[in-house]
Amino acid sequence: MVSRVIPVDPFDLVVFGATGDLANRKILPGLYRRFFAGQIPEKSKIIGAARSEMDIEAFRAQARAAITDHVGKAKQVPAQIEAFLRVLDYVAIDAQGDAGWDELAAKVDCARVNAFYFSVAPALFGPLAERLHRYQMAGPEARIVVEKPFGRDLATARALNATLAAHFDEHQIYRIDHYLGKETVQNLMAVRFANILFEPLWNAQYVDHVQITVAETVGVGGRGSYYDKSGAMRDMVQNHMMQLLCLIAMEPPYHFDPDAVRDEKLKVIRALQPVQPADIVRGQYLAHRHCADEGALRGYLEDVENPNSRTESYIALKCHIANWRWQGTPFYLRTGKRLRARTSEIAITFRQPPHSIFDETDASWRENVLVIRLQPNEGMNLKVMIKEPGPGGMRLVQVPLDMSFAEALGEDGADIPDAYERLIMDVIRGNQTLFMRGDEVEAAWAWTDPVIAGWDERGERPQPYDSGSSGPEDALMLMHRDGRRWREIRE
């Protein structure tokens, strides 16, 4: 199966923070892959903008190194790389001053689509938006792309939204969450709404519970000072996991249209019930004493250089959605650093048949589970019951119906674009379906803030857990007391 590549019209893209880590790991390699695929016309212009004083050739050398480090060898074709580098330009700029802005304005063609990617600290979002407006680059075809965090609470999120809205309309603001660009996340909508097989069963009558897991093997690394002011709740639950929850739980939109989809997601967030203290478990990873990796010898408190830190590197919680579709079906969310394996998945566990005609004593074997794997090895897996082959009566066994994208779609179809590639192209096309709207962000913080305020008032310390484990012991009890268990964390 060969995927279709639909070229876009020539455009101008300005990447603020073009010398930073995100630009080198994701943005520039992703843009090259889209150029290699024939989606980006050679008449387009990609302009790097940053504080660093460098000429165009130095920036192109940086981009070449990024392609070498982060693009597969099969796509490192010298002629294509040279053609891509000719699309690049560079301007040294002061985000909070006036230096470089006249030069940048002269390079941007406001007669065609121009996008401005804010790959910078959130404190610079406002100054950049204001200067784009002042230097007349905030025209009707302008779009701005802003990275998370979108504030750190409801008050700061509202202030940020107001700042951006002072210079750009909502349809020009693209709040990017790379999780929504993953192929499997989008396939979740296709599975639900394009197949009669699942949607009639997608409710509390047939779904026992839902688990969403985002596990990482790494610690906070060099992000210690930032992460200690954030924690797993702000860094992962409030945005990435909230978006996954919305896509699972939302009602069918009237059309696959940006605002129709985001309207339904907003209804889910507003229907989330307050989380009770007994339904939350927070943890901090300990040092891994038996690991040869020097970095793993440090625990969370050492990594953030704050022995009194009460910030969580792990969180597990149980949520309920107060609507007709999901009343009584719990959603279990967990995410953490330094866990057993790197994996992200959504598991929908269906209820057992109301009556079994087979002589089976282990009821857990009768559960059908739909697993959507986000990483690694993107794909879907449906566990069903069949008869165990061989003579000797009717013995049931659970087997997976497995759809790995790499196997099901063949070599060409398995060459799945990175999430950033897809999302940047959506910005150029003007498609906001996979981007968060301002009221979504504020609603998510309105639900999150009381949870954080609650444990701050109680003065709770996160529970320690061993690096390389599945998290704190109390997280197991969160499920066990409901007669359920977490899925094993494994790649």
Automatic annotation (TrEMBL):
It comes from Pseudothioclava arenosa. Substrate binds at H178, K182, E216, D235, K337. Keywords: Carbohydrate metabolism, Glucose metabolism, NADP, Oxidoreductase. SUPFAM superfamilies: Glyceraldehyde-3-phosphate dehydrogenase-like, C-terminal domain (SSF55347), NAD(P)-binding Rossmann-fold domains (SSF51735). InterPro entries: G6P_DH (IPR001282), G6P_DH_AS (IPR019796), G6P_DH_C (IPR022675), G6P_DH_NAD-bd (IPR022674), NAD(P)-bd_dom_sf (IPR036291). This is Glucose-6-phosphate 1-dehydrogenase. Pathway: Carbohydrate degradation; pentose phosphate pathway; D-ribulose 5-phosphate from D-glucose 6-phosphate (oxidative stage): step 1/3. Catalyzes the oxidation of glucose 6-phosphate to 6-phosphogluconolactone. NADP(+) binds at R51, K148. It catalyses: D-glucose 6-phosphate + NADP(+) = 6-phospho-D-glucono-1,5-lactone + NADPH + H(+). The active site is at H240 (proton acceptor). Its EC number is 1.1.1.49. It holds the Pfam family G6PD_N.
